[in-house]
Amino acid sequence: MTTVHSICETCSIPYEHEPIQFNGKVIYFQRNCDDCCLKYTQDQKEAPARNARNASQTRFNLMIPPIYHDTDLERLPEALTTPVLTWSYQPMGLGFIGTSGAGKTRAAIILLKRIQDVGKNTFFLTSPDLSLNAANQFADSPAIKVIAQSALKLCKSADLLLLDDLGKGRMTDRAEAELYDILEYRTSHRLPTIWTSNSDAKGLLAMFSQDRGEAIVRRLAEFSSIVKL
Q: What is the CA radius of gyration of the chain?
């Protein structure tokens, strides 16, 4: 078999190779050097995982409000940065309680992103959006109904859920029932939840009905390490 001298089409370095022939005709002609062929093969092997990471990052960026995309962890209070950096994935979640502007949501999203980056499926939803989806799951529009049902399903099934601004306004009975079902499902399946609120347990109780309020607050308290600012 004849050795051919060629120039690699990728790196332009000279290389030698032996074309594959069949019945005197060349059926394969190597166009790249061995190193570039090896790099290409390795890249193709890694492509599915890389594409999955890119898709996950895109979904995360679409899910999180743009204002929180570039949060500087060093500008947050140490009371927030410590749990964000030290929390490891486990059934016990985190609850951030403090006044508006304290950095609760920013810290919680940084933690959500950290867990997302290690391959866990995460989901973010504000309390008002939870109420909206609770109502829209029965909407006349099929498209709106599917979006709402999908969001509520992800609230239950995500490896890590962030519920933001709990207790921000009184929930409808339907929304409160959804919140209870979500927390009941997640705690019974040992799935952690991160949540933020401006209100402590007493304030949250005042926001919920007597029927479900105590059960909701108890699940938030028993299955979360509370960070108060």
A: 26
What's the pTM value of the predicted model, to 2 decimals? 0.79
Q: Tokens at residue 32, please? A: 């790249």
Strand, coil or helix: 148: helix
The last residue of a domain, from among 40, 61, 82? 61
Same domain, 170 and 187: yes
What is the distance in angstroms between the CA of the first residue and the CA of the last residue of the chain?
77
Under 8 Å between Cβ of 103 and 79 = no
CA 218 – CA 223 distance, rounded (Å): 8
Alpha carbon 103 to its chain centroid, in Å, reads 19
* Tens digit of each residue's pLDDT (9 = 90 or more) over 79-114: 999 999 999 999 999 999 998 888 999 999 999 999
Q: Name the phi and psi angles at 33, rounded to 5.
A: -70, 165
**Residue 157, both tokens:** 């099934």
